[in-house]
Structures are given as C-alpha cells and as structure tokens.
Design goal:
This protein is α+β, with helices and mostly antiparallel strands. It contains ten helices and seven strands. Helix 5 packs antiparallel against helix 6, helix 6 packs parallel to helix 10 and helix 7 runs parallel beside helix 8. The structure holds adenosine-5'-diphosphate.
C-alpha cells in the first residue's frame, strides 16, 4: 500500500520534480562513490571540497536533465496540449496551458481524456445528424414524388387524348388540382418546421386569452366540421378564460392542427371538445374527439415527421403527415409538454401546457 502511494506520487511528478529527482540520485551516487573510494584507501581532499563537488554534480545533473526533458519530451507534449487546449478544457488547464512545466501530468492526462471524450461525442453527433439528413431528404422526396407523379399522369392523359368526354376531362383536372393542393400543403408545413428549427422565426411571446384563440380556431374549422356534422365544443366546466404567455400565432397553428386532425379522423355526427385546466404554473389545454382513435402500436410514433397510423386514410384526407410534428416543434420551442391518450375505436385526446400569466 505504502509502496503504491509512493509510486503514484512518482507517476504524477512534473518536469522540475523529475530533474530534481535525477540530480538527487546523482548526488547520492557521488556520495556512495566517495565512500567506496575511501574504503578502498584512496585519499580524498577535505570535506568542504567534497560537499562542493557533490553540489556541483547535483546542479549540473539538475540543469542537464531539465533541459533534456524539456527539449525531447515536454516541448512535444506542450505542442499537443496547446492544440487540444484551444478547445476549452478545464479552467485549471486553461490558465496553465502555457505553463505546462508547473503542472502535474495528471492534469494533462485528464484534459487529454476529456478532449478525446468530447471529440467522440462530436463525431457521434455528426454521424447522427448525417443519418437524420439522409432520412429527411429521402422522406421529403418520397412525399413530394407521389402527388407530382399524379399531376403529371392526369395532365399527360389530357394532352394525349383530346377526345375524352368533357366530364372525364373535368374529373382529371380536379384530381390534378387536388394533388397540387397537397403538394402546396406539404411545402407549407415543411416551411413552418424549417422556420422553427432554424430559428428564422423566433418566438414572439405575449399574453393572450387562450379561450378566445380556441373560439377563433373553431370558427376557422367550422365549415370542414359541418361536412361531417361534427360539433366543435368547449368541455363543460373547463371553458374558463385564462391568460397565457406564448407565441399566439404558433399556438394557433398547433391548435388548428389538433382540431383539424380530430375532424379528419373523427366519426360522422361526432364531436371535438376542447378543455382548459388551471395548473400550478401552467394552463393545460386538451383537444378530445370520439373518432377512430390510434392503436397502441402507432401511438408512440405519431409525433414523428411523415408518420401516419393509417396511410390511406391520411392521404385521402389530404394529410401531409407533418401536422403533429409541427405541434411537437412548437411545444418544444415553448419548453412546454405535449401528450396523447388514445384508444382505437373510442377516440383520442391530445394535450399541451402553456405558461400561465
Ligand atoms: P396527417 O397529415 O397524416 O394527419 P399528422 O402528423 O397530423 O399527419 O398525424 C399523424 C398521424 O396520427 C395521422 O396520420 C393519423 O394516423 C394519426 N392521428 C393524428 N391525430 C389523430 C386523431 N385525432 N385521431 C386519430 N388519429 C390521429
């Protein structure tokens, strides 16, 4: 144990300490040499001369070893250390980076380890971003390809066959238009995500009445809801006026997406109910419906971009597959929570919190 402690001390010794150790060894060797000579009967000059000689040997050994360590070893370590220190290491190392001689090698070792760790993390992050970028590009091109291909096919048929009956021509044109509208929706949704992610559109926080905003969204979506005879309601007892602090425009987009989904995936003659609950530091807003619901298997993925629990239904309803992803981005931007509860055939509830004023 004691030996181990001493060895540890030697392991972390600095260059000056090392030079001192070497010179002490030289002094000890000279002393031993002197005793050997004396034992062999060789006469040695006075004690003063002896001390002077030992001191001279020690000084010489100290400066020589210090110079050699510096020249062959520490200059190179210092260079490497300076390179890695450019990337903000520990405070201690930052202060001492140009005075490597004064510091313990364990600090250098630790900082090098930190640097390697940081580099590995950066590399992992870059690989992850690269994978994300590849997947994102693949998804976007796939999503744009389908409506574009449809438009092309309808228009090509119309160009190739001028003898088509008028109703069929009108039908193809309206289908082409529907696909063009879908293309536009995807691009609009991608633009919103880009604006939030890139920070191009920074959050504009303001105090506003959340009930009023919900009423505005209801009014906007009223015509679409009427097509399926779906009622847009406030939940009884959870419709008070609450003031929240958030970006009103973004919250309007989030609410519109949620209410619109509840209509899209809602049953005929069904309902969409919105409720507001006051919590300690926030207001909880929930959008519920009695629609088709989402199965357990799909539920954990619905906030992923382009994820659709029911692909054909979503496309038929004109969904871009980005609505919930936008809601998630908006809530993350506000550092608020977003959750979903759903049961297939029963309905879904999407809820998010907002900072109360
Ligand atoms: P989409 O444009 O396809 O509606 P979203 O990102 O808005 O894309 O939603 C992702 C998927 O989650 C939808 O395709 C749908 O399957 C499911 N979903 C979202 N909201 C509801 C809801 N209220 N009821 C049932 N399923 C829903």
């Amino acid at each position: 144990m004691a030996i181990n402690l001493r060895l540890d001390f030697l392991k972390n010794i600095g260059p000056k300490g090392l030079a001192l150790l070497i010179s002490s060894c030289f002094a000890a060797i000279s002393l031993i040499f002197f005793f050997i000579l004396r034992a062999a009967g060789v006469s040695i000059t006075s004690a003063g001369t002896l001390i002077f000689l030992i001191l001279a040997v020690s000084f010489f050994a100290y400066f020589l070893s210090f110079y050699l360590i510096n020249y062959f070893l520490y200059r190179k370590i210092k260079l490497i250390y300076k390179i890695i220190s450019d990337r903000k290491l520990s405070e201690e190392a930052g202060k001492d980076q140009l005075q490597l001689f004064n510091q313990d090698l364990s600090v250098v070792e630790r900082d090098t380890f930190l640097w390697v760790k940081r580099k590995n993390q950066e590399l992992d992050q870059m690989k992850e971003m690269e994978r994300f970028r590849r997947e994102y590009l693949g998804d976007v091109s796939h999503e744009l390809k389908t409506p574009l291909f449809n438009i092309q096919a309808y228009l090509q048929t119309l160009v190739d066959d001028r003898s088509l009956p008028e109703e069929q021509q009108t039908e193809f044109l309206s289908k082409a238009l529907k696909n063009a509208t879908r293309l536009q929706e995807i691009i609009n949704d991608l633009t919103i995500i880009h604006k939030i992610e890139s920070g191009e559109r920074a959050l504009k926080l303001q105090s506003f009445n959340i009930r009023e905003l919900i009423a505005e969204v209801f009014e906007e979506q009223q015509d679409i809801a009427a097509m399926k005879n779906i009622k847009l309601l406030f939940k009884e007892g959870a419709d008070q006026d609450y003031s929240v602090n958030a970006d009103r425009e973004f919250i309007r987009i989030a609410l519109s997406n949620l209410v619109n989904n509840s209509i899209k995936y809602g049953k005929y003659n069904g309902f969409v109910k919105v409720s507001c609950y006051l919590m300690e530091e926030s207001v909880l807003v929930e959008v519920s419906d009695n629609g088709i619901g989402i199965s357990e298997e799909h539920l954990p993925h619905v906030f992923e971009r382009f994820y659709r629990a029911d692909k054909s239904r979503s496309r038929e309803q004109g969904g871009s597959g980005l609505g919930l992803s936008i809601v998630k981005h908006i809530m993350e931007g506000h550092q608020q929570t977003l959750h979903v509860r759903s049961k297939e055939g029963v309905g879904s509830t999407f809820g998010f919190t907002l900072q109360k004023v």
